[in-house]
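Thread title: Can someone regenerate the structure for this chain?

I was given the following input by a collaborator and told the matching structure tokens would be attached. They weren't. Posting the sequence so someone can regenerate them.
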Amino acid sequence: MSNQTPGAQLWDTLAPIYAASPHVAADWLIEWPAQLRMCGDFKGCRVLDVGCGSGEKARHFAEHGATEVVGIDPSSGFAQQWSTLPALPNLRLLKGSYEDLLSMPELRDTRFHLIVSFQSLMYAADHAQAIAAMTGLLVPGGALVFSVPHPFRFAILRSEIEGWGHGYAYQQTAPYRYPSPWKSDVFIEQRMLRFSDHLNAIAAAGLRLESVDEPAPTEELRKIAPEKAEWMDRYVGLVIFRARAEG
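Best answer:
Regenerated them for you:
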């Protein structure tokens, strides 16, 4: 991708607001533990985090046993935050995106045991192409773990807004524009992908699907952030896929 795409420009605006949002703090109670479980044991592994945002999750991998971690994000807003973090010898945070992956000189001679993409793949210009690019950077037998908004989330939301039936709303895959939950006057646009779109992209890349998780609100979340739990009860939240390259 070029240095500034609409998605990158969006997150240039949202990055500092996102970092301070209580919504994000609540997400760490439910999303991150589930994402981490799906990653499995990454000690001694090379890890690539695509769409790494603030870099906190990439840093976790680097601090907990990964031999080398690379985080990539297109946003200048997030890149400015990286400069405030202490350096780690096994962590690099780079500007780039899904569209850049196979052409980035920093990645040319490196293959990864684990590639993750958490809540960012929906901003890729071409979803299937992005999964194929990440697959091309895996070692034989390496794993890809990615999370995205649950397809039911926007089917339910759009049925409420547009008055559509849930089934009709679910099948509308064209880009959808909606207010950011972190700043209501900033609008996010992304394609509305179905389960079949994710599964077909995994298959087309030659990956073998290993597991899928749809984390539900925990009792801890209900106590600490009841509004987030109530939202998840209504809109489901996220889905996480784990797939493996041929070994």
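The chain has ten helices and nine strands.
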